Amino acid sequence: MACEDEPPEKHCWVCFATEKEDRAAEWVSPCRCKGCTKWIHQACLQRWLDEKQKGNSGGTVSCPQCGTEYSIVFPKTGPLVYFLQQVDRALSRASPFAAAGVVVGTVYWSAVTYGAVTVMQVVGHKKGLDVMERADPLFLLMGLPTIPVMLVLGKMIRWEDYVVRLWQRHSSKLQIFNGLVPGMGRSLPRIPVEGSYGGDHLSVSRTLCGALVFPSVANLVGRLLFRRVTSNLQRTILGGIAFVVMKGVLKVYFKQQQYLIQANRHILNFPLPEGRADGNIEDSNDDSSNE
Amino acid sequence: MACEDEPPEKHCWVCFATEKEDRAAEWVSPCRCKGCTKWIHQACLQRWLDEKQKGNSGGTVSCPQCGTEYSIVFPKTGPLVYFLQQVDRALSRASPFAAAGVVVGTVYWSAVTYGAVTVMQVVGHKKGLDVMERADPLFLLMGLPTIPVMLVLGKMIRWEDYVVRLWQRHSSKLQIFNGLVPGMGRSLPRIPVEGSYGGDHLSVSRTLCGALVFPSVANLVGRLLFRRVTSNLQRTILGGIAFVVMKGVLKVYFKQQQYLIQANRHILNFPLPEGRADGNIEDSNDDSSNE
Predict the structure, then answer these.
(1) Predicted-assembly ipTM surpassing the 0.85 threshold
(2) For chain A, which terminus, N or C, has the lower number of CB atoms within 10 Å?
(3) Final residue before a domain boundary, out of A35, A52, A74
(4) How much is the pTM?
(5) What total number of domains does chain B contain?
(6) Is B259 part of a structural domain of the chain?
(7) Range of the domain at B58
């Protein structure tokens, strides 16, 4: 496309019009390009620039052929416009941080409220209000939001996994349990890969919901199992411990079973339509493994 | 790699061992493959499956050569394990929704609190508390969170843009303003593209923060400008109106100036090192545009 020699009269590389066709048009040679791509109408270049900038009026644009950055000048502005420009820029820069602050504030405030509700749930509605009214406000603003944080952190301690691992390591020594848990004593055909059994991954949503619902569950279990305990606090703590222990035992059992299921999985032969000799031999193999 | 004829003795396509090398090993032919890729050790296939499943023990795996899905069987489980499996699955499925509920609840509760704070700010601390105590709790739980929602929706109405557009459309008829705003009467060298001037985009963080800070600003402006008004509510409303009008006028002025700046931008010639004839002519053009 590019021609070396400059043609006798200017012509615009956007609209292909020559100097003679529009005597009033303003011409510009904005880059290092020579020859037939040297000249362009100011108006054509402006349109092309608009397209390249895509709404970002401050963006730089370069010549696609020689790479020279076009030098764009703007009329000078008054002090008020300059001031408004600076204010606009400062607000644009500050607003993401302010929005982040709003989000943090929202989470914090909800954590405070959750903490207060939990205190009332654990020690009883009236006593909880009394305790919080007598406490130092600063202590409340620091202490109450740590309640949900502690619950989530506590929920992240997966002690059942350690128990399962310990069990698996010392299963040969724990012969007394073999009667209790089916398939415990048998030697395993294979060791399943870590994490392939029983959803070993830490789910964020499950941890969060489990942690937040725990005080209510502890309260409920306490009311069901320890009706004779009169103190609200003691009853909820006992209920919480009972729930954690019961859930832990079920989880350890479940994980151990999942482990055994994975350890005893078996891949079947592809069923052969014709009763071939080798196929039949392998079929009998499958039967023995399916016992 | 694949050989058509089945070799005289089985050999595993993973570990290349033959039947003679390990008489005890279990063999399996899990897919439609024939020839030398027909047989594999059960143990080798299990290892290969673990690698392909990457911890997802329920995932299906197919033969990379013939595409047959391997049929994996698991030992049968008791009713308790089945029940626990169902509970685990139900919890995993429900937890994202529960977590979404927690997020919605957090936002809702913060909106209620923000609404209550705003009511106290606008009508005064003591009177605000009185009003809210006397109101129906259901009405408060529905009404208070709509306050921030309304503020954000109100902030999203960009009336200044309409005023600017109206102004630009009828600028020739508004000759009286030409003295007030510099560069208004002149005919523009070009029409800037929509959205290229003055941050026309709707920033989420700026809209949110602007909306949430508005009652405080209205209160402050009311206290500064309308000290003689005794009613807290009236003073804050007057302050809010004054702030919106002042900000609107500045914004319209700023946008109009940004429009003019973009309309009057000019692209300069590339400076020529030697004083060539055509270069000089264009240089003089630049000077006239920089006035």
Answers:
(1) no
(2) C
(3) A74
(4) 0.71
(5) 3
(6) yes
(7) 1-74
